[in-house]
Batch of 3 targets.
Target 1
Amino acid sequence: MAKITAALVKQLREMTDSPMMECKKALVEADGDIDKAVDVLRKMGVAKAVKRAGRETNEGTVAAYISEDGKTGALLELTCETDFVGTNPKFTGFANELAKVVVENDPADDEALKACKMGGSTVADELTEMIHVIGENMKVARFQRVSVENGALAKYVHHNGKLADIVTFEFAKPETAAADEFKSFAHDVAMQVAASNPVSARREDVPAEVLEHEKSIYMAQAAESGKPEFIQEKIALGKLEKFYKENCLTEQESIKESGVTINELAAKVSKSLGDDVKVVSFVRFSFGE
């Protein structure tokens, strides 16, 4: 049997806002596995919320770049040793240039990126030079490139440089991309992704394992009610609908317009521009995640 330490109990309490004794009981039942203990608390209906536990990482920044035609973009995480360097304009500017290289060359992996041309040499050479100039070790932690054929991309970078995302929109008319109303809507949606950290853009895109996990939790909670099975099913389905509304971007209430969902705002913009604007996907990087 795993040893249940005070530190482990404290960590679970901080993650779930649950009572200390209930946290200890859950850890005992889960044999010290903190993820399983979270599920135990949720099934008991004790856990108020599960905070995503972060892990310690190096310092650095997340960069976002979108091509001039608005159809190709990339997020890139560049790490360094200190926060002082992580917020240095020279460092953050270099991260943006690297994201641009990703957009223009579509490298398959880190090694392919290092071999890409940059500033008359290669990314590997430029990275080495930057290390020498700034005096700190740095590396590309990850990157992702996205593109759209009929539509446009929108980005949002948080002011601290630690969080960024790119949202993909689809529509039929090329002129929609240049419309101020669409640009404003797209920016607000990208900001929503940063603020609310949705699971997916649409309910059909929720990963199967996430959906099954949530269903199992809701069914267990419903079973605790002692009500007939058909009532339990309705309770679980109701909780699942709430999950979709809270975690699927298009079904979330807008942080800019209370009482209106992202889907409803998309329909409003579509009607105004005589097009069919759809929010189809997003990529979100939180530094060190």
Note: Strands lie at 59-66, 72-80, 117-118, 121-122, 139-147, 151-157, 163-170, 278-286.
Target 2
Amino acid sequence: MRRIVVGSFTPSVLLEVARATGALAERDLDVSEVAVTSSPAQFRSLLAGDLDAALTSPDNVLAYRFDPGNPLGELADVRILAAIDRGLGLGLYALPGTTPADLVRAPVGVDVATSGFALALYALAESLGLTREQYDLVTLGSTPRRLEALLAGECTATMLNAGNELVAEQQGCVRLAAVADHLSPYLGTVLAVAGTERIDVAEDLATALVATAGEILDGGLGPQAAASAARRLALDDELAQRYVDGLRDPRGGLVREGVVDRGALETLVRLRTTYLPSPAPEGGDVLDRALDPDSGLVHG
């Protein structure tokens, strides 16, 4: 078996289903999933070779491929192999009873202030009539850690998805705004790599994940997906089924055939150039060429 180490923020139900159904074994893959604490930590490990691939926000790939002002301060040969999902319920969630007006001068949790989910947060907050200067950003790391912080009252609101939002709702938290309603088309997760040394095995992993996603989207593997969601995300039966329903949601769920569509990339580029512009020496923004077919952002 060929071993591959994948870094993720929230445990991947799709990866677990691919393992349980034999999709990984069919491709001679032994996949180890490692939890990462933040976007910079994930890409630091990816560039160091501690991770072979990453399940990550495509905005991270944009930042580390094109923007020298990224948290690591260097550009890297990172690229997207496949689109995985469109956010899986990604939205701005707040403590029970919170209204948009309550966010003024309130602590709002982010992974880091320059992450893709943070940029989406800024846009959703604007849709609620709030500018970045009106709330206080608190750096809290990965989505599961932000859920813990929200439930503990360490922040008033934060971006949640991938099952974490279901737990928050069960505890009475409210969704103030959803990415699917305001930022579609969007991509929440992609499979990414750095360099080419492990790209063959990573491409086989992408094939397995895309095939598994296709089966789920076609109505299959429901019991397996629900069982994996319950086990990996500690969801009860009701929430596990809601999670599966979310996987099949055409606006926020899994991406068929792993296609990285231009519309979603345009959304991501627009968010970054709006809320975190990075002027290029020759004029314009460093992301202006990201959408070029030959930019190398998307492998193949």
Note: The longest strand covers residues 78-85.
Target 3
Amino acid sequence: MATILCIEDERDLRDDLVEELEEAGNTVLQAENGKQGLEMILEHQPDLVCCDINMPVMNGRELLHELRTKHPEFVEMPFMFLTAYADREHVLEGIRMGVDDYLTKPVDFDLLVAKVDQRLRQVNKIVDKKNQELVALYQRLAGHQQKKQSDASAGAASAPAVDQFPVSLNSIPIVIFGTIDQELRQFIAVLKESFPNITVFTDPAAYFEKLKNLSVHFIFIYGYDGDRYRELQEQLAKDSKKSIAICVSRLENGWLPKGCEFCSTGSTLTLPVTEDDLKRNMVTWIKSKLAKEFGRSEAA
């Protein structure tokens, strides 16, 4: 089921659009102008936007420009224009701005549903490809780490085949260090969308006791500062070779925990974060660890 935002100032038409899209099995949000639409996009992160062009307060072109220039996290979200003007110049202008499709008024509702389904299938293909890349990189890192451990304990051994690690996103282990607050709860909710295998530790000692039972995993460190953070990083570097440690900060006032200077380049994450941005960062972090420990060719 997809979430679609319908932005249209004509109430009767908006009601008809919502009804048709809901009957097709979608969850539909509504806004009557671009300003309300932008607020709902930022809050709800819909899968697709269907937007009128001529509206009060903020029109469709202004909304699209705002999204494409100031909110790159929504660059892959399909954006469709509803318009009574679909001449060549209007279409070219929209394409240059980054619109994905046009639907002319009066609306052909069968065509609307067909175009929405088509755009959502395209997005799903992109998401699946990115997920496959993340899983493949994780498999490669897990394989190299197992070989490295085998070499250290029993002499040289052949590299394990990638298919010895038949993981999905659901099975990639996630560890969180920190005290639970609202900010961290929201981050965990984002993680659980794709990574339900999450363990939260408020005491690092408990983590190190269970470390031997963990495969390659991500560690998100939240709310540690100063000497406490530095000591944890040093212990991770010494005893947790199978981890990718990430320092989590909050966006408010540009706040970063004191001690983040001990993070290696690229090993930080600023909240709030979208699921898509999180996965993109995870790919980068795995590639960085592969390049650092096993050579740049392994991160290609």
Note: The beta strands are 3-7, 27-31, 48-52, 79-83, 101-104, 174-177, 198-201, 217-222, 243-250, 268-271.
